[in-house]
Every structure is written in C-alpha cells, then in structure tokens.
Amino acid sequence: MDSSERTTNRSEQKSRKFLKSLIQKQPRDLLLVIGTGVSAAVAPGIPALCSWRSCIEAVIEAADQLEVLHPGDVAEFRKKVIKDKDLLVVAHDLIRKMSPRTGDTKPNFFQDCLMEVFDNLEQHIQNPVVLQSILRLMGRGTMVLTTNYDNLLEIFGQQQGKPMASLDLKDKDKVLQWARGHIKYGVLHIHGLYTDPCGMVLDPSGYKDVTQDPEVMEILQNLYRTKSFVFLGCGETLRDQIFQALFLYTVKNKVDLEHYMLVLKENEDHFFKLQADMLLHGIKVVSYGDCFEYFPEYVQDLTTQICKQRSPDADRVDSTTLLEMLTSARIK
C-alpha cells in the first residue's frame, strides 16, 4: 500500500460511524476486556506481546537460553506451537513441564522465562494512545480485566500519576472490592501477572477456590449480566477456558445481553460469519478497519464519543447546585 492509498484509507477510516448503542453507554456501564492486541499496539517492539503464539514462542526461546527445559522438550514444544490449534493447551503443558513433578505450579521456571521475555517493559512503550483512552474511561468508572500477563497499563498509568492496582483471582477480598467498583484503577488479571508466580494460572482447575465460591462467582457473573463488556484486542478470549468458566458457561440467556467486540476485518465472509455467531453470545462484533494500524485511532475516537455522554449524576449535581444558588439568592 503506497502513501497515497494509505492517506485515502485513513480518511475513509475517520468517517466510519460508531454503533449508537455503544457510544450512548455511560462509561461506568462498561467493562473493558483487554487482550494481546492492546499490548501489541502499545509496544510493537516486543514480539511476545503480539499474540499468544508469539508469547509462547518467546517463552520457549527463553527456556532454551536459560537452560531450564531439556533440548528435546524445546524441540517438541516448538513443533506444537506450529501444529497445535489450541495454544492455551500448549501453554498449559509448557507451564507443567517447568513446574515440580508434584503438579504444583509454584515455584516454577515459567515465571523466570516470562520475566526474561517482559524485561524492562516501560522502555518499550511506543504508542500509548490506547492506554490513554483506557485510563480516560477508567477515570469515569469503566472497569478493566485482562487475559494478558503484562502490566503495561499499570506501568503507564503510574507514570501518569494514577493509583494503579494489579489484581488476580487468588485474592478474594480484592476481587470483591474491584467487582463492587471500589478500586477505580484496578486491573484484574484473570491469568495472573508475570511478576507474581503464585497468581499465574491457565487451567480453570487452578481456580477451584474461586469457581466453587458462590459469593465470588455470583458477583463476577453479575458483572457479565449488568455491564456491557467491550473486547479490545481479543482474539482467543472467548475460547479461553478461564474466561468461559467465569462468565460464558455459567451465565444464562446470553443472547439477551449486549456486549461488543472490536475486530480486524481481513476477510468479509469470515467477519460476517463471526458477527452472526457472536450474536448468539450477546456480543456485537464491530470492525475497526482492515488494517491493524487503525486500531489505536479507532479506540481513541470511540472513547471520545463515549465520554461525550452526559452522566445522570452530573445532571443531578447541576440541579442541586442550581437549587442551592436560588435558595442562597432568596436568603440574600
């Protein structure tokens, strides 16, 4: 694509319309689900952030360099990444291979490999537009959860002076506070965070304490029933076993819900089939364009549209203020 075509396409991209049902939502009625696409847009210099496949390949490479995985196993996992369709299973097997034979996932070498892969993340933030948009929405009450191991959002938020908090499902009290909206700048990592080996989980069995806790499950499922989830940069999230266990399998009448997924439209037939399939889950699939470069600008413009909506609370405050002013004037 030459420069003139790119300019024309971007001009067309700016004229794209947004779904009224989405931009008329109040920020506090939204919950963002952040996938690898967000990290890839923010830090393109780290291949491991671009996709699950790239992340697993980088971990295998780190395991080879750190000599924490037998060369035969390294070769076998490299084949699996290429051949296997279910990358979550491959990742789970990789974690098990670098964990004690007792089956316990901690301590393990997987965390060391992730720390090698995600070393000095803050130095690789090149395009913070998406993160700025997410923080803007969080400031107005939007909640955030992620399937990512990285903490790019928290790093950037702290640089902007925001009291960011990284949470995982192992901490019940914090999860309940977050779900009730009491941790404004909290980011729930449903797979855990690479800096905390105790919180990293890929298999739902690792969250038995969570899935068998009626209080936690009820409040999480209530979010899926009452909030509009907006999937950003998510490709495999709906196939993610943990996300399914927490939300999809347990929430009934999903077709009556209204969630949204922003996707790249590379192939029209695939895109419209995905739209039809996702409606069965109560998810409206929306294209941000046919080029990944459009993603950050689309999210920025979408955020601007959503933040234009006047909060009912603001109307109440304005009415109260006006009443106080009239009362004060009468007294004088």
From TrEMBL:
<keyword id="KW-1133">Transmembrane helix</keyword>
<keyword id="KW-0472">Membrane</keyword>
<dbReference type="InterPro" id="IPR038916">
    <property type="entry name" value="FAM118"/>
</dbReference>
<comment type="similarity">
    <text>Belongs to the FAM118 family.</text>
</comment>
<feature type="transmembrane region" description="Helical">
    <location>
        <begin position="30"/>
        <end position="49"/>
    </location>
</feature>
<keyword id="KW-0812">Transmembrane</keyword>
<keyword id="KW-0007">Acetylation</keyword>
<dbReference type="Pfam" id="PF13289">
    <property type="entry name" value="SIR2_2"/>
</dbReference>
<keyword id="KW-0597">Phosphoprotein</keyword>
<protein>
    <submittedName>
        <fullName>Family with sequence similarity 118 member A</fullName>
    </submittedName>
</protein>
